[in-house]
Design brief:
Layout (H helix, E strand, L loop, with lengths): L2 H52 L2 H29 L9 E5 H11 L1 H7 L3 E4 L5 E5 L4 H13 L6 E7 L7 E12 L3 H4 L21 H11 L2 E7 L5 E3 L2 E13 L1
Parallel strand pairs: 2-4
Antiparallel strand pairs: 1-3, 4-5, 5-8, 6-8, 7-8
Protein name: histidine kinase
Organism: Neisseria subflava
Keywords: Coiled coil, Kinase, Phosphoprotein, Transferase, Two-component regulatory system
Length: about 260
Amino acid sequence: MNYDKQNKKLLKLKDRISILEDEIEILKNLKHEVAKFNDLILNHSQELVELFHKEKESRAYELSNTIQNISSILSSRIIYSELELNPKGLEKQHKYLATIYQKFDKARYIFNKKSRKTNNKVEFHGKTKYAISAMSAFDCVPFILIDNALKYTPNGMPIDVRFQTYDNPTIATKLEVIIESIGPKISEEEIIHLKEKKYRAKNALNFPGEGLGLYIADQLCKLHSVELKLSSDKEIITTINNVEYSKFSVMLVFRT
């Protein structure tokens, strides 16, 4: 028996199994995200039907726009999974001019109902026309960041999104987007791992989630040469259900 040939076949088989396991994991993650988007669409659709019955046209129009925006974000999320499954497809991805402020405003619009329910006002500071050449999958980034802020911020506390532009030609940075909220305190040891796939900090374990959001946002930022930075203050602002809360910031840095 030719053992070398058998060993080579086994190695190839193991490699193939490993690839298939990775693909299954990607599809499982997508299934979880699709279910979340489906719930959003279903909830808004049910309310939309009720509004039509009550002839509240302006609110119905607003909801129909929200549903359309959710659908476009879902499409972006599916595109990202396709890129994970086939990285070579990156070269074929169509790009368009994406205005960053508008992308965040779109995400805020989607979460209007949720933010009203929890009394977490998502407030924008500054306005910019700064745009980048982006794949449609980039739409997931503002959605993930505002979704995370709403998920972890205690009811009644604000979420601030700041747009800081730089016009100095000697400075590489052209725009910083800073999302500031109150969230579970993250230690210095943990924060360096927050962008890793499936990683969850100790104080966030009792919150819903798979540890995918910041990982996906970071991967999409890297594909667009955008830097994603995270910080958690040491000062404790409040304690709820034995969980310490402090100021949490996410910064996106756009350079030329």
